[in-house]
Amino acid sequence: MNLNGRSNSNNDGPLFLSAPLPNGENGLRCETTVTKNDTPSNKLNRTPTPADSGWAPIHKIHKLSYYHPLEPTHTTFSRNSIVQVLDRLTNSLRMLSCHVVWYDDEHMAASCTTMDANVKFQMNIFASRMEHDDLVLELQRLAGDSFVFHKQYAQPLLSAVHSKEPYHITTVEDPRTVTEFPESMDQCMNDHDNQVVNVDDQDIYTALRLAEEMIQCNGWDVRRMGIETLLTFTDPSNAGLETTTASVRILISDLPDLIQQVESLVLCDHEYLTLTALKVCCQIWQTPTAMTTSHDNVPTFLIQRLAHFVRHVHVAPHHATLALQGLTALGKAGSCISGFTSLPAPPHAAWENARRQAATAVQG
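The chain above was modelled as a monomer; its predicted structure follows.
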């Protein structure tokens, strides 16, 4: 429960906002504690809904409390530039393929989700504690990989606040690509690639069987580890092209039941499991090994589910983007696109790229 009496369920991490108390004093930082549970939270079970409003009015900006320790990911800017800053932030979120789950109507705040590493964060705008008329933008990571959050989302968003160009952002085409590795890191990555390039198929088979057993468990944490294991083994950027090709070949030839289990997770109502299962399926379908095989064994209900995600792109854009990528890899994008006079306008860059690739595949 926040200080203005409104309940904000958040099982992914701390959530706080500075809010005025009835007597006019600034509020303390509110936090929620994650409860260890084998079942996912009700919030995570819900399918994301579109934000039905924009940023709160400027008069909703509250002064930063002295008891509110700012996150390191913050910056200050002039109140006079608030309109331009909000415009740049909104456009930057679109180019980074971030989906705004909700805008807080009592504070200048927005909660966002991304397509990478289950990263979720909140954007808060406060009035400065100082006498001068400055505002503070704070980015608070709620869940997901810390490095991904800071490198690929926090830095571009904070730099966009002070950008002289109207819609300047560091990474537009592929916001998930990290381009600035130190030389020593490059050497470490090369050494790692040399070590895993000749992984034995038996080792891959053993790892995939372990992932299958974890997915079949009832514990939420174990099932999550299982699906994330498959996500890594089928991602060429993480496992390498040779390991990914071998993994997909083993899945298709020796572990078809595991593929069916992943496909069934696409139908569940759990946001994270559905999104991760979609990623795994898309990565499998996009590998050269899978593209040379027939896709007639893909269940009809799964195709219908993917088409459903595409139709509701403004409700769950991340799911819709992956669904359209999957349909394109399966050669089914034509039937999906033909059902609409035109696909919905892109809410973010990843969807725009997926739609362009689907149109190219259909025309080609």
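The first strand starts at residue 74 and ends at 78.
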